[in-house]
Design a protein that fits this description.
The chain is an alpha+beta fold. The strands form five sheets. An eight-stranded antiparallel beta sheet has the order 16-15-21-12-13-20-17-18. Strands 25-22-24-23-27-28-26-29 form an eight-stranded antiparallel beta sheet, with helices on one face. A seven-stranded mixed beta sheet has the order 2-3-1-4-5-11-6, sandwiched between helices. The structure holds guanosine-5',3'-tetraphosphate. Guanosine-5',3'-tetraphosphate binds next to helix 2.
Length: 548
């Protein structure tokens, strides 16, 4: 091959890399259970053409379950425990939708998944507004200044006043809400939304088969045709509300959106296919393509620069019951992955050949020959990957550690058959490494059994079942009533001088050896802080990962 050919192909490859990265949108959906996340996910896939019928989100024939619903326990309980990644294309963009379990018993994985997303769609039920789980997920997005688009769902049902919903977003979440469109009527009287930029009506036509008339004429809100279409009373109310919004809500500011301080708000109904096209459009035009990511060892890593790098944000055990393998799920942060690439493992300080990456579609996997910054892919884990590990083509890159998030449930893990003690200890260590639960060992206390901490209670059932199935150890997770856990940000010298109250707090070490305090009550927590005003108690177990 001539030198000219080589240069040409290098340029072409760089251009290709830049284009591929620019067209990627990696986002997650955050919501409280029942707000409509599953319905919206399905409709996004439907509108983008990734699936052809609602309710058919099943990649292979004869699978009696939806794609993001694949572990045995998930099927038995009809919930989604493990996050999955759905990739689809629309309007020239390639989307990586990181699915976050939204059930009552959601897990730390849900939080960790958000560290791999460049933006999020927050789905609210119009009748309920901001609910508990949305608040928690939002807080994790805020840690990384993740841009958030808001979709207010279920407009076809009676709900709260739209102004009240905007106020709640601002008041409870502390983010400026900027309505891009505005509902005309509600529930039975729901007529559609007005696009604020053009002041035209996007009309809703009932039924599940698609909301927009293809030949719908745009009706200007300020024309008599609007009054004729929705009735004079509603027309006048909407015009008044639009005028009020002009003064009361901020103009959409792309900078503020990207900094996570302003959220554009879209109204719609996922069930009735209303407003999905607008949301998809917003994901194409507003949601960011992969952004530079902070690196501990150097300056920020630029996504479309050659030089593959990625970090592990999830270890998925038991993907395939026939193989009993685990899979490390990676977020690619820069460059391009090519099959058989030599990759440097930052924590182990060694190179290895990465022969296969998998594109994950729930339980199904497909080998990929190349993948780009923004993509989320899986690699079979022969036991060498931990959550937070950095992989890169060249040494010198190490991404921020993924923090351990505040657990809300605690249990003591008891081995019921001491003859299996070795397997018990191995299982506990491995499940902790997978990030299924956090494991603490009490210091200066008679308690020898490991204490588990989890964001969702269901994780304890997962531990019991996997310890038996995979390690042959019968275990019992016995709930303990700690009020909360806080990591002590203090060095050994300071730690030695802490004034401990006589009761109410257990000092422990987490699985990484970091000191954690387990408090019996709110009072005990404030007591320790009062007695030791200079020590820092943190709700996360490592420094928050952040974007640059
Ligand atoms: P989730 O993943 O956030 O938990 O919510 P999911 O999509 O499963 O939706 C929860 C319930 O809300 C479902 O009803 C769903 O059909 C309904 N829903 C979702 N979007 C809308 C909407 O825009 N309008 C209305 N009216 N309902 C909506 P379900 O009765 O629990 O289940 P199903 O029998 O419909 O499957």
């Amino acid at each position: 091959m001539s030198a000219i050919d080589l240069t040409g192909s290098l340029e072409a490859r760089l251009l290709n890399l830049r284009d591929e990265v620019r067209r990627r949108r990696s986002f997650a959906i955050i919501s409280h259970p029942d707000a409509g996340k599953t319905t919206l996910t399905e409709k996004l896939l439907l509108f983008s053409g990734a699936v052809h019928a609602a309710g058919s989100v099943r990649p292979k024939k004869n699978r009696g379950h939806a794609t993001s619903d694949w572990m045995e326990m998930e099927q038995a309980r009809g919930i989604s425990i493990t996050s999955t990644v759905l990739q689809f294309e629309h309007d020239g963009c390639l989307f990586n939708l990181l699915d976050t379990p939204g059930h009552q018993d959601f897990s730390e994985d849900t939080y960790r998944t958000l560290t791999a997303a460049d933006s999020a769609v927050m789905v609210l039920d119009a009748a309920k507004g901001i609910e508990a789980q949305t608040k928690k997920l939002f807080a994790v997005c805020r840690m990384r200044q993740t841009p958030i688009l808001t979709f207010i769902n279920k407009l076809d049902m009676p709900g709260l006043e739209p102004l009240e919903l905007l106020d709640e977003i601002e008041r409870v979440l502390g983010v400026a809400a900027c309505p891009v469109n505005w509902p005309v009527g509600y529930g039975g009287q729901f007529r559609g939304v007005v696009d604020r930029a053009t002041r035209t009506l996007v009309e809703y036509h009932g039924g599940a088969g698609g909301a927009l008339r293809p030949d719908a004429e745009l009706v200007a809100v300020d024309s008599p045709a609007f009054d004729a279409e929705v009735g004079p009373a509603l027309a006048s109310k909407v015009r008044d509300e639009l005028d009020l919004l002009e003064g009361a809500t901020p103009r959409f500011d792309p900078e503020a959106f990207r900094a996570g301080t302003q959220t554009p708000v879209y109204f719609g109904s996922a069930l009735k296919n209303f407003g999905i096209d607008r949301l998809l459009e917003a994901l194409v035009h507003l949601a960011p393509s992969p952004l530079p990511r902070r690196c501990l060892t150097n300056g920020p890593v630029i996504p479309d620069k050659p030089g593959f790098s990625a970090f592990v944000f999830k270890i998925q055990g038991n993907m395939d019951p026939n193989h009993r393998d685990t899979m490390a799920v990676l977020r690619i942060c820069s460059g391009r992955f090519e099959r058989d690439m030599l990759v440097h493992h930052a924590r182990l300080g060694k190179k290895f050949r990465m022969t296969r990456l998998h594109r994950l579609f729930a339980r199904d996997r497909e080998t990929v020959d190349e993948a780009f910054a923004g993509d989320v892919v899986g690699v079979v884990n022969p036991g060498m990957f931990l959550i937070g590990d950095t992989l890169s083509a060249e040494p010198g890159i190490e991404y921020d550690k993924i923090p351990s998030f505040e657990p809300e449930h605690f249990a003591v893990l008891r081995c019921e058959d001491m003859a299996r003690n070795k397997q018990f200890r191995k299982g506990v260590t491995q499940l902790a490494e997978e990030g299924i639960v956090q494991v603490y060992h009490a210091i200066h206390s008679g308690r020898r059994e490991p204490i588990l901490g989890a964001v969702g209670r269901l994780q304890f059932d997962v531990v019991e079942s996997r310890m038996w199935q995979e390690y042959g150890a019968r275990v019992k997770a016995i709930p303990v009533d700690y009020f909360c856990a806080r990591w002590l940000l203090a060095d050994a010298a300071r730690l030695a001088k802490v004034k401990w109250p006589s009761t109410g707090v257990t000092l422990a070490e987490d699985q990484h050896g970091a000191p954690v305090c387990l408090f019996n009550s709110k009072w005990d927590l404030s007591m320790l802080s009062r007695e030791n005003p200079d020590i820092q108690l943190s709700v996360t177990g490592a420094h928050a990962q952040s974007r640059e």
